[in-house]
């Protein structure tokens, strides 16, 4: 099946030229023209993606308009005898209706129908300036290599020595020469000069510590005295409560005695109901106990 003919007009149409020297970035421009009345999507591919940088590498060309694509060749060591096989391909297809963002563009190229794609191929051509051609004719090939600057040699800096040499005395004879040889003396370490505290300072520190201890003792004694006062107050209140209870009991006894001493107006009435009064003379504690036992038995049966 034959492919569709490319609707975009490429300038240049067959090859991209890059002019050296190639010790720095070399840029070649590619113009894409859309003569149709429809929007056209494009995408630029290459066989050497690490050697080139393309901006923009994809996009949309509006109807009856054009767009410029910059193809930047990265610096490298050019070898004239090496055969150049770098190529570019511009793919295109008609854009769908509606807005197109980056995600839509990626999905559109991923799911594109291969029969609807159009493409154009371009070769890469490396051209040399006249001075580079003359150098090549003379056999100089180092002009095409990248300049690499070597760092200057580091100077060795010797650390200051802490060793002191004692000058030798004049030699009188062999024995004196053996005794009075050069000696190496190490400089003793310097001790930090820390001032000692004066007696007045020691006295002031001791006095402050004593005052702090006394303050703590006073605080503790004050708290002990407060506790004693609280305990005494509690004992006094307990004694008053006991006294009031005793007075209350005494008042009850006096009331009972007075009731027994004074005859009541309802003596006849109460006498007529003596049997009932005798039955009701059972202590209330027994009624309470009986109610508790009865409630316990009923609760046991229910549960």
From TrEMBL:
The keyword Cell inner membrane does not apply. GO terms for molecular function: FFAT motif binding. GO terms for cellular component: endoplasmic reticulum membrane; plasma membrane. InterPro entries: Ig-like_fold, MSP_dom, PapD-like_sf, VAP. Keywords: Coiled coil, Membrane, Transmembrane, Transmembrane helix. Residues 227-254 form a coiled coil. Residues 7-127 form the MSP domain. GO terms for biological process: endoplasmic reticulum membrane organization; endoplasmic reticulum-plasma membrane tethering. It is found in: Endoplasmic reticulum membrane. It is a single-pass type IV membrane protein. The chain crosses the membrane at residues 285-302. PANTHER family: AT11025P-RELATED, VESICLE-ASSOCIATED MEMBRANE PROTEIN-ASSOCIATED PROTEIN. This is Vesicle-associated membrane protein-associated protein. It comes from Branchiostoma belcheri.
